[in-house]
């Protein structure tokens, strides 16, 4: 085997390993993002349930309460869309890395 062929094989091997390390980092980062998003969605839903308590009717007008609930719902929905999109991308990434 020629020296140039050996050098080429070593470079390809190193490049492949670096790509795998980079991909593993991306997968781990996405998992952390998904976990945090799920936590935010859960917290938002819990907060929304708190506003269903009749106690707030004494302190906030029904219009204000309605607006707050609507904005909270919009926020949760936006995070949910991002979560779904990232989860789909993560599934594709993990599936392709197993091949």
What do these coordinates show?
The chain is an all-alpha fold and 99 residues long. The chain has one domain (3-97). 85% of the residues lie in helices and 0% in strands. It is built from 2 helices and no strands. The protein has helices at 3-50, 62-97. Helix 1 packs antiparallel against helix 2 (62-97). The longest helix is centred in the N-terminal third of the chain and has 48 residues, at 3-50. The two termini are 30 Å apart. The model has no long low-confidence stretch (mean pLDDT 88).
Helix and strand topology:
Elements: H1 3-50, H2 62-97
Helix pairs in contact: 1-2
Task: Give the gist of this structure.
The chain is 85% helix and 0% strand. The chain is mostly helical and 99 residues long.
Keywords:
mainly alpha; rod-shaped
Q: What is the typical, i.e. mean, pLDDT?
A: 88
Number of domains: 1
The beta-strand count equals 0
Measured distance between first and last alpha carbons: 30 Å
**C-alpha Rg (nearest Å):** 24 Å
- Reading the helices and strands in chain order gives HH
Structural class: mainly alpha
The helix count comes to: 2
Helix content: over 70%
Major pleated sheet: none
General form: rod-shaped
pLDDT < 50 runs, ≥5 residues: none
Strand content: under 5%
């Amino acid at each position: 085997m020629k020296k140039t062929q050996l050098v080429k094989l070593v470079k390809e091997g190193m490049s492949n390993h670096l790509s795998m390390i980079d991909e593993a980092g991306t997968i781990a980062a996405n998992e952390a993002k998904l976990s945090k998003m799920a936590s935010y969605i859960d917290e938002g839903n819990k907060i929304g349930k708190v506003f269903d308590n009749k106690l707030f009717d004494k302190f906030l007008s029904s219009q204000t309460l309605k607006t707050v609930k609507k904005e909270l719902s919009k926020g949760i929905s936006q995070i949910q869309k991002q979560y779904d999109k990232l989860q789909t991308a993560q599934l594709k990434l993990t599936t392709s890395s197993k091949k």
